[in-house]
Amino acid sequence: MAQADLVVLSPGVPHTQPMLEPAWAAGIPVIGEMELASVFVKAPIIAVTGTNGKTTTTELLGQMLKNSGKRVFVGGNIGTPLIAYADGAHGVADVIVAETSSFQLDTTVSFRPATSVLLNITDDHLDRYAGFSAYAESKWRIFKNQEPEDAAVLNAMDATVVKMMETHALRSRRRLFSHVPVVQGARIQKDRIAVVENRRTTVVFDLAKCHLVGPHNRENIAAACLAALEHGATLAGIQQTIDTFRGLPHRVETVGFVRGIRFVNDSKATNVDAVKRALECFDGPVVLILGGQNKKGDFNRLKTIVRQRVKTLVALGEARDEIVTALAGDPQQGVIEAGSMEEAVAKALSAAVAGDVVLLSPACASFDMFDNYAHRGECFRSIVERLA
After folding, report:
1. One of 52, 67, 77, 155 is an active-site residue; which one?
2. What pTM was estimated for this model as a whole?
3. Percent of the chain with pLDDT over 90
4. Is CATH 3.90.190.20 what the domain over 253-387 is classified as, yes or no?
5. Which CATH class is domain 7-244?
6. Known catalytic membership, residue 296
7. Is 77 a catalytic residue?
8. Catalytic residue at 139?
């Protein structure tokens, strides 16, 4: 490695690996795939990051631009990597929409999005970072190289994002989204998104036909609207997308009904905050299937919402002892343990009655029992379909 001219890391390889020390010592640049690709990309890049909601927002945004007649490449941390576009395999785009992970941002040097979107920052990947502040700083790197003509779309309701706005300088133009009035950005209301310029509403998008449920998805839609408008999306194209976008698999996805009980697959919820957001989508009793491989998440942070909304909790996987210790007294009818997904679904079904929701929202990685979160979600779906 000490003889190389350049080292390019996959996002899955921590940039702190001891094996990289010879390269650091020799002054050899160590960058990531996204940094390398961005050098060769001429189209403006919209980069979307955040602990939760990245993929949904990226896909929404891409569709808003496509429905506006734009040639769009959607990729990055989802689907096709940015380097594949840079290689010329996907034609020429008017705009790039790239989901961007903290791991990818760790290895950026000159990466400069025309628009950077930061959805939220909550506990995640603490098995890889020295602590939460290190993880937050990694997310903030998305703004590092922006200039005054660029745009920063930020969540003014997220406590960590707000704190970092107060302590970190931004050269780019701020476009905030919030439930309360903003100077420049978007105000989120139950049935609409109001785009605001100098405190005055200029455009309103209707959410009456929207298929995405929950407060968190209204935040995702607001962020996507603001970024799309920055890059020439039409009002009709944005509204069409809001009306027709059906959501993505494994994200608060209804997979079936058994005896009047709704089964919802939220396998992509691999951290505590994602579970809180999922539970906020339901008004009635929930039987929650929680667990897997913990990423140093704190299950105690679920106490209040579990006490308020969860009827029975089914603890699954490596983390089930931690879950029982943290939450045993909080669900209305206690915690049940399960050794497999099939057992978890069976016990959840026994605990539920017609009108209840059985929600798979694990707050954990899946690698203790499954290949990935999608494999876990498909297993859940398959079991429910056999029961229906």
Report:
1. 77
2. 0.94
3. 90
4. yes
5. alpha beta
6. no
7. yes
8. no
